[in-house]
Design goal:
By secondary structure, the protein is α/β, with parallel strands linked by helices. The chain has one domain: P-loop containing nucleotide triphosphate hydrolases (Rossmann fold, 3-Layer(aba) Sandwich), CATH 3.40.50.300. The chain contains 9 helices and 12 strands. It has a 6-stranded mixed beta sheet, sandwiched between helices. A 4-stranded antiparallel beta sheet has the order 2-1-4-5, with helices on one face. The mean pLDDT is 93. The structure holds adenosine-5'-triphosphate (ATP). One of its GO terms (molecular function) is ATP binding.
C-alpha cells in the first residue's frame, strides 16, 4: 500500500476551554515521512494537542496546516481525507465486523452509500493482510481483544490513505511483541506520523524527533537524546533515571532508579 506522506505545521497553537488553557503556544514543523513522538506526564495536553490536528479542538489561536492548507478553513470532508487518527478507547458497541470497520476508512473518499469500488476493495484487502487480520475478518468488532481492535483501527486509518496519521497512545492494550510490531510497521510505511506515547524507550526507538509537553507547553523538541535528558526526566516526569544506550538499537534508553 502506498500513501503519499504530507507535511504538517503547527504555528503557535493554543487551545482553551473557558478560562483553562490546555495547550499553550505550541509550534512544530513536520516534514513528509517524519515520525514525531509526543511525550509528557498525565494531563500534559497530549490528547488535546492531537485533537487540534484531526480537527476536533479548534485552536483558540494559531494555525494547523496539512500540505500547506489550514485545516480549519477546509471542510471536514477534506480533513477526513487527509488526516487519519487512531484514538484511545474507540466505541466498540456497534455490530460491525472487522472488515466493515476497516471499510469505514474509505467513507471519506466516497459519497454517502456509494458502493466500494475495485480500488476501495483492493486497499481494504491490502490493509487486512498488512495488519494480519485475515483470520478475524468476519468477526464482530466488539468481540475482539484490545490489541486486535487496535490493529483493526490502524487498518481503518490506513485505507483512508492519510497525508498525516495521528496516533493517541497506539500501543495501549498491546503486549510488548505487538507494541514493537505495530510501531515497526507504522514506521516502515514511510508516512507522516504524530504519536502520543507513554513508553519513553519506544518513543526513542521509533521516532525521528520527540516533543515533550508539560502543562500544555512545549518543554523541548528535538532528537530523542536531546529531549530525554536527566534534567527533563527529573523536572517534568519527576523521576530519577540513568540514561544509557540500548546496545542493540543504539537508541537512548531510560533506566528509572
Ligand atoms: N473537555 C475538557 N474540559 C476541561 N478540561 C479538560 C477537557 N479535556 C481535557 N481537559 C484537561 O486538560 C488537561 C490535558 O488533558 P489531555 O487529555 O490533553 O492530557 P494527556 O497529556 O493526553 O493526558 P494522559 O497522559 O493522562 O492521557 C487535563 O488536565 C484534562 O483534565
Amino acid at each position: 500500500m502506498s500513501i503519499a506522506p504530507g507535511s504538517l505545521q503547527l504555528e503557535n497553537v493554543s487551545f482553551a476551554i473557558g478560562e483553562r488553557t490546555l495547550v499553550r503556544d505550541v509550534s512544530l514543523s513536520v516534514a513528509p515521512g517524519e515520525m514525531i513522538g509526543l511525550i509528557g506526564p498525565n494531563g500534559a495536553g497530549k490528547s488535546s494537542l492531537l485533537r487540534t490536528i484531526y480537527r476536533t479542538n479548534r485552536p483558540s489561536s494559531g494555525r494547523v496546516t496539512v500540505n500547506g492548507e489550514n485545516i480549519w478553513q477546509r471542510p471536514a470532508s477534506w480533513v477526513a481525507r487527509h488526516v487519519g487518527a487512531v484514538l484511545q478507547d474507540m466505541p466498540a458497541e456497534f455490530p460491525l465486523t472487522v472488515r466493515d470497520v476497516i471499510a469505514m476508512g474509505r467513507s471519506a473518499h466516497k459519497r454517502l452509500l456509494e458502493a466500494d469500488s475495485a480500488h476501495d476493495r483492493a486497499l481494504i484487502e491490502a490493509a487486512i493482510d498488512l495488519l494480519q487480520l485475515r483470520p478475524l475478518e468476519t468477526r464482530a468488532f466488539r468481540t475482539l481483544s484490545g490489541g486486535e481492535r487496535q490493529r483493526t483501527l490502524v487498518a481503518r486509518a490506513l485505507v483512508q490513505q492519510p497525508a498525516v496519521l495521528v496516533l493517541d497512545e497506539p500501543t495501549n492494550h498491546l503486549d510488548i511483541h505487538h507494541q514493537l510490531q505495530l510501531l515497526r510497521f507504522v514506521r516502515s510505511l514511510g508516512i507522516t506520523v504524530v504519536a502520543a506515547l507513554h513508553d519513553l524507550n519506544l518513543a526513542a526507538m521509533f521516532c525521528d524527533r520527540i516533543m515533550m509537553l508539560h502543562q500544555g507547553e512545549m518543554i523541548a523538541t528535538g532528537a530523542p537524546e536531546a529531549v530525554l535528558t536527566e534534567e527533563n526526566l527529573t523536572n517534568i516526569f519527576r523521576i530519577e533515571a540513568t540514561l544509557v544506550r540500548n546496545p542493540r538499537t543504539n537508541t537512548i534508553w531510560v533506566m528509572p532508579a
